[in-house]
Amino acid sequence: MRLETETWTDAAAVETDLALLPVGSTEQHGPHAPLGTDTVDAEAVATAAADRYDDPVVVAPAVPVGVAEEHREFAGTLWTSASTFRAYVRDIVRSLAAHGWDRVVVVNGHGGNAAALGEVTARIVRHDDAYAVPFTWFDEVGEHSSEMGHAGPLETSLLQHVNPGAVRADRIDDAATGGSDRWGEWQGRVNLAVDSHEFTENGVVGDPRSASAERGEELLDLAASALCALLDAVRERDPRPRVGE
Amino acid sequence: MRLETETWTDAAAVETDLALLPVGSTEQHGPHAPLGTDTVDAEAVATAAADRYDDPVVVAPAVPVGVAEEHREFAGTLWTSASTFRAYVRDIVRSLAAHGWDRVVVVNGHGGNAAALGEVTARIVRHDDAYAVPFTWFDEVGEHSSEMGHAGPLETSLLQHVNPGAVRADRIDDAATGGSDRWGEWQGRVNLAVDSHEFTENGVVGDPRSASAERGEELLDLAASALCALLDAVRERDPRPRVGE
Amino acid sequence: MRLETETWTDAAAVETDLALLPVGSTEQHGPHAPLGTDTVDAEAVATAAADRYDDPVVVAPAVPVGVAEEHREFAGTLWTSASTFRAYVRDIVRSLAAHGWDRVVVVNGHGGNAAALGEVTARIVRHDDAYAVPFTWFDEVGEHSSEMGHAGPLETSLLQHVNPGAVRADRIDDAATGGSDRWGEWQGRVNLAVDSHEFTENGVVGDPRSASAERGEELLDLAASALCALLDAVRERDPRPRVGE
Amino acid sequence: MRLETETWTDAAAVETDLALLPVGSTEQHGPHAPLGTDTVDAEAVATAAADRYDDPVVVAPAVPVGVAEEHREFAGTLWTSASTFRAYVRDIVRSLAAHGWDRVVVVNGHGGNAAALGEVTARIVRHDDAYAVPFTWFDEVGEHSSEMGHAGPLETSLLQHVNPGAVRADRIDDAATGGSDRWGEWQGRVNLAVDSHEFTENGVVGDPRSASAERGEELLDLAASALCALLDAVRERDPRPRVGE
Amino acid sequence: MRLETETWTDAAAVETDLALLPVGSTEQHGPHAPLGTDTVDAEAVATAAADRYDDPVVVAPAVPVGVAEEHREFAGTLWTSASTFRAYVRDIVRSLAAHGWDRVVVVNGHGGNAAALGEVTARIVRHDDAYAVPFTWFDEVGEHSSEMGHAGPLETSLLQHVNPGAVRADRIDDAATGGSDRWGEWQGRVNLAVDSHEFTENGVVGDPRSASAERGEELLDLAASALCALLDAVRERDPRPRVGE
Amino acid sequence: MRLETETWTDAAAVETDLALLPVGSTEQHGPHAPLGTDTVDAEAVATAAADRYDDPVVVAPAVPVGVAEEHREFAGTLWTSASTFRAYVRDIVRSLAAHGWDRVVVVNGHGGNAAALGEVTARIVRHDDAYAVPFTWFDEVGEHSSEMGHAGPLETSLLQHVNPGAVRADRIDDAATGGSDRWGEWQGRVNLAVDSHEFTENGVVGDPRSASAERGEELLDLAASALCALLDAVRERDPRPRVGE
User: Fold this and answer.
1) Among A39, B51, B207, C15, which residue is least crowded by beta carbons within 10 Å?
2) Nearest by CB to C192, which of B126, B188, B237?
């Protein structure tokens, strides 16, 4: 059940301890995909998983702005400090847990959020009365994951499937040719660049020409399946296990 | 232009310094109205004003969770501390300003956010490179404002207009009879209650039976007009005036 | 009993759980009233109420500097950030509560403190082992309240009564003519000004010519009565009530 | 000039960059001296020095609650965290400096404040646009300083001089016999005790029987002289000197 | 040059803007390797690189405690919050930069520090007057990197090379058999475990039996070479580049 | 036992609740003594005391950077804010206590750390589940203590004893003649200087010509003895005593 559209009386009647918190970003996605791509994608994956899951799952509203300062040079990108972002996510997870929905998967649509989510969910598990893990959808789509990039084939495809018309089809060629083929500027395993404008002219990494609505449908199916499997694991998880016990 | 659905290249082409940041809440709105009421209403007012305004206005995505701990005893209510909320709003306004959209109206849909927004916007004006003011839509609808309550006729009407079907019509009678006619428990001008469950059984304050989609349409028109008038004033405002100069 | 003038042994002997914390400000009050007006007034109201209350009431020393950055352009105005102010007040209330005086009314003399006090007292009630409410004296003087302004007839009158000589009588005409008749610069219900020098040349809002020591005596009586009634309510208050129980 | 009793217009007319900020404490001072002793004493020293200084000196209102958690077991003691205290003092000093009074002596009446004041004044000198130093009056009274204790002969004497009647003369014998002759419990140079109730039964350290109003007069004279000499030095101080230049 | 052993006068004479800050951890490394393994290893790599680099490089003392709460159930593990750790590292990097050594590589020996270092170095680059990147030595040793584990062959080997005798050779068999072959408990790409005792009985991940001092020598050579290559890149780096310019 | 060189299994086998946390600094020590002097000295004292103490004592790795901003003008000095330093020390002490070593002496080698350590250890005793006290070695060496200075005879001697070769013997004459004979610039009991470059040209205070390895041996013996006596007292200490009980 999506909290936004339910009443509190209906929420009170749900019997579950599982919740999903979609977390997106408002940030540049090249000349062809909208600034809200990450939020739309995260919400789509969360909703699809909740819909197909066999038990009720509470879906919180999506966090629309995250850790995206790396795109600050591209117009329209919004961001918070990582510290503010963690506080915002933690407060929301704690209020979910206050209603008994204390096993929370944070469904993430933006790579730049991942480290902050790892830190805050571990803190929640160790110090709050809740269990929480982050799930980044494009890491959970099998072979496709290797083509992630930024505003590349994966994000573009998923958006074309869940929100046809959101992608400017006529700009995809420009998107591909004005972008970069790799995230970052690397010396060994170290990325020397902190901002994306240092290595991509139009904000794109990867080739969105291999995107399609069909591929998006497949990505959604893969990600939702993976998320359902994770919900199974989270539902059964002993939050404070010890090996050998 | 709504940032979520635009690309960065389109955002870069807009010539304006005006932006709107809708701020809602996910909180109980009685047995008849959804938890997302405040967010939907704030977004509707912001979008309507931007649509009818003569100059371009950037509309940021809505902040979906705010200062709503006072409803914590009602299932599904989410909240952050006032301090986290201020940090989240301030970071977003500063990133809007970084793109040149440095005159920002925070379009608020939840009374509990108002004090925190007053504090953070004053801080932005005094100490950041931006001008910001809060605008709470239900304070700006003329005579109607006196009937605000909570989940009462105003919020219910606006929702019925902008999102028909979101309101459970069959529960409005229950909503009215199980609610309270006044926010708070008062001794003189002091509210002794910090949480809404101290004075309302079902979360409602006011009588939503006087709500209607028609009234909602009127409310939207009034609020959007007031917001456009405010945009005029903000556009012309000297951010650092001195009387007599 | 005023803590400042009592010994700890006498404080230990008091049987009460009621305390008052006066909170003032050091800020401009026009050419005729001193910078310490708000502190003096808050202390006077707190002391008068404690004196006439039928049970013992502990009176803490007054907090002399508050949220007054809006007057920063007028010499002598001192201020803290709202965040520092909340921390200072919260720490003091918690130390009062540590001695068993855990029902605290914060007696406020400055409008600029009100929002911060509302936030911090609610936080204390919800998360600390104490009950606290703010009481702003000039909101509790019946019909007079509508004439509040700033350095206007109310504050001036109370000061003339409790501290004759503090007000420069020979400047009251100038105070009246060089001031403003309204706080703020308004577009609808939104105040576009964050600082008082944007709308008043000499810092005054309202007409202090209608002030008098006699009126001050009446104001003190009204405010002290209202505060005693609040102490009754606070003494009986269930800190964690639920409607219908 | 004492800010509390002056108007902003008078404050604006003062030509000086020197200010004093008295800092006291509300804390146990044995069975014979009031909880407000430190605040009264700090104010008295600051006022006496300002009165006799040859140039104008701004005197801010006294900070009434400081770092006194070590007396928490004695009724009526109020305290803030050291962190809150530093923030409160720093904000006030910065607002003094905003009016051009940017050479500030913090006149301290409580030993427990000293470390926090040392830290915050150094931070102000290094990172804010102001120069500030702490001055603890009982360290600056010559031979007397060695008898400081707590609620002992020095504090008691000064209070007897500046506020006759504040000290309960009939309890001084009890104060002396029920107290301790040393602050702390020591192993070498390390104090093992964090709170005063660990080593003094009635809160007193030292023998207040050697106190007198005459001695208080002498103490005030010594402290005020020392403070005036410090004002001379502060007035001439290059805030950012380098040896040999 | 290692700062610890140099005088300030020698430090003042160095002409470079390059500095290394080793960052370790004090945490369990199985029954065979000491708690200080990460610190020793990070220092060894930093020193080796500085020694062989053609230009002078300042080496700061190693930060000995980091983000290691995941090992809290194993005796002797020390940790700070990620937030404290970031503040500590940031302050040190800023003080390095204050002396002109404003191109800093943070040489990291502990996987648990990596995310926090990524966040804080990006913040330094964007908002402080310094350029900083993290370098985690075991990510930069070619094919070996895939065998990292925890207290496994890599860390053990390097220690055996740089600090013969630190490893308890007689416990390596136990270390191998009582450990785990994988870090974490995984559902898809999500690690369900927040602490290492959830998946390893003796703290080991991987098989330290394939460790040797010879392998350690090779690892040190590989890591130091990679770090020198990184120093080259950092020395030449435009801290604020833009693609295409 | 020194944690750095022990395994967790050995640490788990130790039966004690006593721990030492050495705290140093990386800061100028004149032209003759290395930047790491304070850290080396603090570690030497802690290790010597642990070695000779009759019960096991856990020795944590030394904190290498502290509150040393006062030396910022001398190359190579590193520092953190006092606030960061307190957080770092507090986190480490709490993790020591998590393993049962909850009586901790912080062995300090730098005067600039003392006030911050006093604050943080008192906070730990009052609010965490641990007992902690600071011990500054050069305050505990009898008559010698009066000659402390900075980079003077005491620090130089101890270093010559524990780390022969670390001191540049050929610069000691220069150190003595280019230094100052007093810390600070004083008006009465107030130090007007916040940084050491304001009163010493080469960073030295005191005369290191009276240093010798023999004296260092004596200093180490005195300090270690005093620390052992303190460990006795800490071992027996009732953390929450009340006089008379």
Assistant:
1) C15
2) B237
A34: left (phi over 0), alpha (psi -120 to 50) or beta: beta
Residues 6 or more apart whose Cβ sits within 8 Å of residue E142: E222
Domain ranges of chain E: 3-234
E125-154 residues touching F, CB cutoff 8 A? none
**Partners of residue B77 in chain A, C-beta under 8 Å:** 8, 95, 99
C-alpha–C-alpha distance, residues D122 and D89, integer Å: 12
Is D238's pLDDT higher than 60? Answer: yes
Closest CB to C242: pick one of B119, B198, B230.
B198
Model pLDDT for residues A108-153, shown as the tens digit of each residue:
999 999 999 999 999 999 999 999 999 999 999 999 999 999 999 9
**Separate counts of helices (H) and strands (E) for chain B:** 7, 6
Q: Tell me whether B200 touches chain C (CB under 8 Å).
A: yes
Nearest chain D residue to F232 by CA distance is D187
Interface contact D165, partner F, CB < 8 A: no
What number does CATH give the domain F3-234? Answer: 3.40.50.10310
- Would you state the pLDDT for residue F242? 73
pLDDT single digits (tens) E200-226 = 999 999 999 999 999 999 999 999 999
pLDDT at C244: 61
Residues of D in contact with C76 (CB under 8 A): 3, 6-8, 11-12, 58, 99
Distance CA C176, CA C163 (A): 21
Q: What is the pLDDT of residues F38-54, one digit of tens each?
A: 999 999 999 999 999 99
Strands (E), chain E: 18-23, 58-59, 103-108, 131-136, 186-187, 190-191
Which two tokens mark F236? 């027996």
The answer to whether the beta carbons of residues E15 and E159 sit under 8 Å apart is: no
Chain E residues within an 8 Å CB radius of F78: 3, 60-61, 92, 95-96
Q: What is the DSSP-derived secondary structure letter of residue C7?
A: -
Within a 13 Å sphere around the CA of E157, how many CA atoms are in the beta-carbon half? 26
- Residue A204: helix, strand or coil by DSSP? coil
Q: Give chains near A: 3+ CB pairs under 8 A.
A: B, E
d(CA D11, CA D6): 7
pLDDT exceeds cutoff 60 at E148? yes
DSSP state of A61: P
Cα E118 to Cα C176: distance, rounded to the nearest angstrom: 60
pLDDT at residue A245 greater than cutoff 60 = no
> How many degrees, rounded to 5, is the angle at CA C20 between CA D156 and CA C64?
65
* Strand B131-136 relative to strand B186-187, pairing: unpaired
Q: Give the model's pLDDT for residue E245.
A: 55
Edge-to-edge strand ranges of the sheet holding E131-136? E58-59, E18-23, E103-108, E131-136
Q: What ipTM does this complex have?
A: 0.97
How far is CA F40 from each of CA D213, F79, F115, F206, rounded to the nearest angstrom? 52, 17, 21, 20
Taking the CA of residue F76 and the nearest CA in chain D, the distance in Å comes to: 18
B205 φ, ψ (degrees, to nearest 5) = -130, 125
E242 touches chain A (CB under 8 A): yes
